[in-house]
Amino acid sequence: MTQKVAIITGASSGIGQATALELSNQGFRVMLAARREDRLKQLQSEVINNGGETSYQVTDVTSFKEMETLAKATVEQFGQIDILVNNAGIMPLSLLNKIKVDEWDRMVDVNIKGVLYGIGAVLPYMEEQKSGHIINVSSVAGHRVGPGMSVYSGTKFAVRAITEGLRQEMKSGQNIRTTIISPGAVATELAQTITDEDIISGFQERFKDLEFLRGEDIAKGIYYAVSQPDHVDVSEIIIRPTEQS
Ligand code: NDP
Fold it and tell me: Between 71 and which of 50, 121, 129, 213 could a Cys-Cys bridge form, CB atoms 3.0 to 4.6 Å apart?
């Protein structure tokens, strides 16, 4: 059994929660991070009941200080950080002419700055250890834009750019890998952040017959990336529902 340590942001629901369960079932020790402590506590109990090793740290990814505290707490608890899954994200889609400035700001803060702060918090430890793996969750929306998706897609294109830049900056011998994972439609709480009524109705119509992926489907992709030998960098994965256009 491997004893690698993985930090997972956005572990309180959806893809993050499923990834925590998958990695712990596969023998990884998992540090859970998000803002909703009740959810983290519940997940912690589930992981422990399944025989896994875990801890949690209430964290807002938009605060670099809190991300540094998360990294420090992980090292204090488990002695190392092998994997960071930068998964926390929000998707309040809207048409640009609705001028939802607060939602634009929050998407930039969580989806872009949160990913950067995660990288900044763990990189010193990974460089010191000369090993690590940073997985950033982008989206099919990070490959393709559509109406109402401008800002969200912008943040997810940015996640891909940042991850690819990080990959290229890592020098030979540092043994730090990067993975971009781009899910299609997954049945989670994500769409609940949408407030634009036009988008909500369009969204329901567009996806009414689609069989969505489950969080576990993405978690398995993440496990595939982290379970490869050191010389294999799974740089990018897209996972869509078969019927998604
Ligand atoms: P959920 O809404 O179920 O999960 C989002 C997670 O992000 C929650 O755990 C939430 O926790 C956390 N989060 C949000 N804001 C913050 C914050 N400021 N600080 C810390 N954590 C935060 O959605 P998904 O599981 O679907 O989303 C996970 C990732 O997958 C996101 O990056 C999303 O963009 C991406 N994705 C999802 C797709 C889908 O169809 N579901 C498709 C493509 C990509 P809490 O509120 O407790 O802080």
Answer: 121
Alpha-carbon gap, residue 234 to 223, rounded angstroms? 11
d(CA 1, CA 212): 32
Element (H, E) at 158: helix 150-169
Instruction: State the burial class of residue 35 (Cβ atoms within 10 Å of its Cβ: 0-12, 13-18, 19+).
Output: middle
Residue 173, classed as helix, strand or coil, is coil
Q: Please tell me which residue in 56, 117, 152, 223 is annotated as part of the active site.
A: 152
For the question of residue 224 being annotated catalytic, the response is no
Structural domain spans, the chain: 5-239
Q: How far is the CA of 190 from the centre of ligand 1 (A)?
A: 6
* Regions of the chain with pLDDT less than 70: 1-2
For residue 153, the model assigns a pLDDT of 98
Residue 136 · residue 163 · CB < 8 Å: yes
Predicted local distance difference test score (pLDDT) of residue 1:
46
Alpha-carbon separation of residue 224 from 5, 22, 24, 228 (angstroms): 16, 11, 14, 7
pLDDT, tens only, 100-122: 999 999 999 999 999 999 999 99
Atom of ligand 1 nearest to the CA of 60: 19
Q: Which residues does residue 137 pair with via DSSP β-bridges, in sequence order? A: 181
How many CA within 13 A on the CB side of residue 213? 22
pLDDT digits (tens, 9 = 90+) for 173-186: 899 999 999 999 99
C-alpha distances out from residue 187 to 16, 26, 37, 201, 206, Å: 12, 23, 22, 17, 14
pLDDT of residue 204: 82
- Nearest Cα residue to 34 out of 186, 189, 176: 189
